[in-house]
Amino acid sequence: MPLQGFKEINIDKATGQLVMTVTKTIVRFNKATIIYLNYPEFVKIFVNPDTKQLAVEPCTGHDRNAVKFCKPGKKNILSASVRDSSVVDTVARYYTFEDVDDDHVAYHKVPGTKAGEDKVVVFDLSDSTSGVMKRRGRKKETAAAK
What angle do CA 113, 50, 17 make, to 5 degrees? Predict the structure, then answer.
């Protein structure tokens, strides 16, 4: 056998930085985070108020406090958004957001780290970069446009 004694190199498919973006209405996780967690349909989200950290762990839909994350069978997802008010309110409480006009959204970008072999990602809520971005999606109609 020509490959006797060789060991296959495990490829970590998560390329790029693991990132969570927080606004007043949504908590969004980037593609690298989704790939690292292996496209879970549900996750559990933990917060440690003492260390100001948030952890995301894949789970089943039957687990207590499971939050919808990815659509099953979809591998071309660009980001996963969590809109559950309990999660958004808990995470957004750690930040202040700039006042912006209706066409923009204030956000905080938080880098994540892999937590061992358990497919858990930990985000340090005190290590964020704030900014303002153009609002995504459909634009609100103004009275003048009607």
Answer: 15
Residue 22 and residue 124 in contact, taking contact as beta carbons nearer than 8 Å: no
**Cα–Cα dist 88/24, whole Å:** 7
* Residues 37, 56 contacting (CB under 8 angstroms): yes
Tell me, what amino acid is at 53? Q
SS3 category, 89: helix
- Which pair of structure tokens corresponds to residue 68? 């919808």
The pLDDT tens digits for 5-36 are 888 776 655 568 999 999 999 999 999 999 99
Say which range, 10-19, 48-57, 84-93, has the weakest mean pLDDT: 10-19
Model confidence at 146: pLDDT above 80: no
